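tool=predict chain=A
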Amino acid sequence: MCCLLTILVFLGPRAVILFWWLVDPTRWSHTYNTFVLPALGFLFLPWTTLMYVLVAPRGLVGFDWLWLALAFFADIAAYAGGGYGNRNRVPGYAP
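tool=predict ok
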């Protein structure tokens, strides 16, 4: 069960990014001027990239910043959760 959850956390948003880009490429081109930022977002911050594409075309105002912050924390939690969960495997770790 834990492996399934890990796969969904890491591959889920990337699959959505790929699918959304194939279905609606104009929204992506309106949001980003180059291919570099979405490619880096795909690799390192997929939740933040998805949220930015969702809220940015009409401009970032008000609660849009909150949604971006929550997506960024979801990305950080996805990476930090694995380290915290496997801390007992680190040599020299003393609980």
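The chain has a mean pLDDT of 85. The radius of gyration is 16 Å.
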